[in-house]
Design brief:
Zincin-like; 16 strands; 14 helices; about 15% strand; 5-stranded mixed sheet; alpha+beta
Length: about 550
């Protein structure tokens, strides 16, 4: 069958991009889940595996890559005055259509090889646009790749299942990366054009290892249908940390039995398809356990569970009672079997314990910046963020904790999460009424942005005055009055929370500015202006010292 097909501009099918920097052309395929039909005729199902042979004719000066090692091109004459060549790739192992790949263009290509501890030699390739060649960082990329290949081949006690391992950073890629067998495509957003944080380097390494894990989980053994896609993705996260469900599965079977079952699973279903039931059978055989009840509870029911400690201590501080209570939401009342570890932490030599009861939460508020164990630190922050988003911890209490810990947080990835989450919580959940208004700053805005003040309007507080309320008399006005009364009562009830927030906001401001490198006030409604003397009474300025005239309408000191 011969056909002329259109190039894609949405990174599906055969995508073609032209570099605006030098006019060079770059093409690549991306077929998951069912876009191979845009390039060649096929029956597009993951369980219809086949061996594919690609023959590519392209300009002779191009780089052409595919699922198998690239052969030496042979001359193929001229087309439109340009010398062409043909690349005849060897047949692939049995793979699904969505895993086939062709990459062609004026890519800059770096070649190396790696020999695993078991003696397998694997050709390595790293490619990207010519205009970004200086940002490829082959030393760093190949170092992570070599470590990953050694880790996975050792963990699964098997050979790398394909003949080559090429990684291509492609332009205009809608996804983060794609695990094409032996020819991985990665968004060039992960080519760093300037200095970035360690967290970004960690992210890139995680992506590389995630796609490498897919060579076994997804490429060697492929789900029978897309309803098991989650299993491929969850297993691929073994590169950084197992997903929560698989952590519970591994805790249930034991680590040694878990990986012994995986090895048997790969051996039995190599270059074929499998289902969740096939995996569970392999794990049951390796562990000697029945996993049907586990699978029903964890994989066939919806809704999260919440675990809370319940305990009592004697006069000497020793536990006299301890239990972990499990809760489930009303709409999804399933309680699941959990394998968990409990951590107790001493803040001082006197033996104060960090636990998420009322006493321990108070301890955590004061001591969040004192952890020496980075894992415990991250776990506590994760729990705190979850609590405040579920309204189990007030925003002012969270801000207090943030002030104690954000200035000494050593992990950039955690710091970025705290900044992002704090900004979102301030916008979505914090009450602007917790921060006092400045009478001379909010005059016209107090009445909904009207050009002039209404007679008798309490503009300084942002609420309609008596004259304005009389002007809106009637049923609708009475309804609004009732709403204001309820709002006033709510504000009075929240007064203690408001005071707590006001106590820590100035410190939070200074801490956040020192850690983020900029003034939070630059993200107010008037985004184009930096300002100082905000209505809150504090002075804000960027670290570079570039400050322009104040904006009197700024109503939230944290830049919301």
């Amino acid at each position: 069958m011969v056909a002329d097909c259109a190039y894609a501009s949405d990174s599906k099918g055969m995508h073609r991009a032209v570099d605006s920097a030098d006019g060079k052309v770059y093409c690549y395929t991306n077929f998951e889940p069912a876009d191979g039909r845009r390039v060649y005729a096929n029956f597009e199902q993951p369980d219809l595996k086949a061996s594919f042979t690609f023959r590519v004719i392209a300009p002779a000066h191009w780089t052409v890559l595919s699922n198998q090692p690239a052969p030496e091109p042979e001359p193929a004459g001229e087309a439109s005055g340009v010398a062409t060549a043909v690349w005849q790739f060897p047949p692939t192992p049995r793979i699904s259509t969505y895993l086939t790949a062709v990459v062609a263009g004026e890519y800059h290509l770096v070649r190396e090889s790696h020999t695993t501890p078991a003696g397998q030699e694997i050709p390595l390739g790293l490619a990207g646009r010519q205009s970004l060649a200086s940002h490829l960082e082959p030393d760093d990329m190949f170092a992570v790749t070599r470590q990953g290949l050694d880790y996975y081949t050792g963990l699964f006690e098997s050979r790398y299942p394909f003949e080559n391992y090429d990684q291509v950073f492609v332009p205009e890629f809608a996804a983060g990366a794609m695990e094409n067998a032996g020819c991985i495509t990665i968004s060039e957003r992960l080519l760093f054009r300037s200095k970035v944080t360690d967290a970004m380097h960690e992210l890139r390494a995680t992506v590389i290892l995630h796609e490498m894990a897919h060579m076994c989980f997804g490429d060697l053994v492929t789900m029978k249908w897309w309803d098991d896609l989650w299993l491929n993705e969850s297993f691929a996260k073994v590169s950084a940390a197992l997903s929560s469900v698989l952590k519970q599965l591994m805790a249930c079977t034991g680590r040694d039995a878990f990986f012994a079952g995986l090895r048997a699973y790969f051996t039995e279903h190599s270059h074929r398809n499998a289902t969740l039931a096939d995996l569970l059978r392999a794990l049951e055989a390796s562990s000697g356990l029945s996993l049907s009840d586990w699978a029903k509870a964890w994989l066939q029911t919806a809704g999260p569970n919440t675990l809370r400690p319940q305990f009592a201590v004697g006069a000497d501080g020793a536990f006299t009672q301890f239990a972990v209570l499990q809760e489930a939401p009303g709409g999804y009342p399933t309680l699941r079997p959990h394998h968990i570890a409990l951590g107790l932490y001493n803040r001082q030599p006197d033996g104060s314990l960090l636990r998420f009861d009322e006493r321990s939460l108070a301890t955590l508020t004061e001591s969040i910046g004192m952890f020496a164990d980075s894992i415990a630190w991250s776990v506590c922050w994760s729990a705190v963020l979850d609590m405040v988003q579920r309204a189990e911890l007030s925003v002012p209490a969270f801000v207090t904790m943030l002030v104690r810990g954000i200035g000494v947080e050593p992990a950039v990835s955690v710091l970025q999460t705290l900044h992002t989450t704090a900004a979102r919580l301030m916008t979505a959940m914090a009450d602007p009424g917790w921060v006092p208004a400045r009478p001379d700053r909010r005059g016209t805005a107090a009445c909904g942005g009207r050009p002039r003040r209404h007679a008798g309007c309490r503009a300084q507080g942002g609420r309609l005055g008596a004259a304005h309320r009389l002007a809106r008399a009637g049923p609708r006005g009475r309804r609004r009055n009732r709403q204001r009364i309820r709002a006033t009562r709510a504000r009075r009830a929240a007064e203690p929370e408001r005071r707590r927030l006001l106590e820590v906001l100035p410190e939070l401001w200074q801490t956040a500015a020192s850690t983020s490198g900029d003034c939070l006030a630059t993200r107010c409604f008037r985004r184009s202006r930096r300002h100082r003397n905000c209505w809150t009474g504090w002075t804000c300025s960027s670290l570079s010292g570039s400050v322009t005239r104040p904006w009197s309408g700024c109503w939230w000191s944290t830049g919301t």
